[in-house]
Amino acid sequence: MAFEFERKQRIAIIGGGPGGYEAALAGAQLGADVTVVERIGIGGSAVITDVVPSKTLIATAEAARSIPDAVGLGVQFFTRTEEGRPTRPEVAVNLAAVNKRILGLARQQGEDMRTELVRAGVRVIDGVGRLDGEKAVVVSTASGHGGTDFDRVEADTIVLATGASPRELPSAMPDGERILTWTQLYTLQTLPEHLIVVGSGVTGAEFASAYMNLGAKVTLVSSREQVLPGEDSDAATILEQVFTRGGMDVLSKSRADKVERTGDGVVVTLTDGRTVEGSHCLMAVGSVPNTAGIGLEEAGVQLTETGHVRVNRVARTSVPNIYAAGDCSDVLPLASIAFMQGRTAVFHAMGDAVNPIELRNVTSNIFTQPEIATVGWTQKQIEDGIAQGQIYKLPLPTNARAKMLNIKEGFVKLFARTGSGTVIGGVIVAPRASELIFPLAIAVEHRLTVDEVARAYAVFPSLSGAVTDAARAMHIVGG
């Protein structure tokens, strides 16, 4: 008597970054036969060249900044000369050592992620994957004979998680030495004498902040009237004030026309004819999705005009069995969203319970000093009448813990639905705002009112107490 066994669902994932990694773990958890194809290493660019390295650099900059900041708390740093006289030591950054640690940490994180996939039973192929129709992925791998071998992976479900790469301009082509993308910064052996950052979005602002606090002279070229266009205006104003006070030159409403190398430096020519000379230039002018030449159009996968993969709220593309997660999709380019998309895609494909992604509930953070964290509706949307809400802003320096830490700038801003008092959004500008935003994210996700938030016990003294203080100030009578 013959027995027929139900075949495992086969899932092929192109890209092992946050989206692909999470999709693979979800598939393995549900009993699927999962294969991940990754060209540069598990973790993808997010771990190897982008998020993990940049945030590690920023953490180092915070440590460097904390030393002079401690002086404001009454801490004194000095050494003694041969004559026994006290003298203030200089704070120096060994960038070669910093970058070596950054790359080592990123490599270790990637190895840990690979180990986790293998432990879960996921097959990992090192190579470049492309679609071969709707049901297969062809992988090109380097052979031991100096050529290329090809592997074909049949799949019932395919997840695209190919990420994105720094956008390059023909008039400012990176050379990896003086004109750099953010993936090339970690080869630097010494701190730039004068770093010119072109682009004042999130990436440009983060690196400008980090290198300023590491001790480099920084010029930020911003094509807009204010840094961080599109972010909360009050937050952007504080950050620009911090930049200026720290010695950064912020060139507002200035667009770079071209960047040229001058031997031992660079010159940036602006569209109005002005020039800025420096030792290095970081191009932070956005990114492009890694979707070209991998068989998407041939398989019927729809793309946007920018080359991003169109997906719905469960990360499904125009082809029913193909999904996309992360920066290659037309959703916000955040690692947290990539993780959620990857898991959501596989749960949906395998018929498990799934909650469609609600972008309104997504938290985001800008890792400058101070950090800027946001969730939910924005103040501009409320002021424009798109959302109905009330706004309350609590200056952070009034908080007792902030006084102890000598925090001079920052705020907690809450947005609550008019009438009901339901929390619909918020902005926090503070050290570690990325940690402080979480209670507001819970409030937005679960539609808590300001009174419900205020009734939670915050430690005193604590920065998180500013959240409950702001919520209490928005008390709804009878609520």
UniProtKB/TrEMBL annotation:
Stretches assigned to the Pyridine nucleotide-disulphide oxidoreductase dimerisation domain: 364-470
UniProt keywords, alphabetically: FAD, Flavoprotein
InterPro entries for the chain: FAD/NAD-bd_sf, FAD/NAD-binding_dom, FAD/NAD-linked_Rdtase_dimer_sf, Pyr_nuc-diS_OxRdtase, Pyr_nucl-diS_OxRdtase_dimer
Pfam families membership: Pyr_redox_2, Pyr_redox_dim
Protein origin, superkingdom: Bacteria
Cofactor field: FAD
Residue ranges occupied by any FAD/NAD(P)-binding domain in the UniProt entry: 10-342
UniProt cross-references to PANTHER family, sorted A to Z: MERCURIC REDUCTASE, NAD(P)H DEHYDROGENASE (QUINONE)
Family: Belongs to the class-I pyridine nucleotide-disulfide oxidoreductase family.
Protein name according to UniProt: NAD(P)H-quinone dehydrogenase
Species for this entry: Gryllotalpicola reticulitermitis
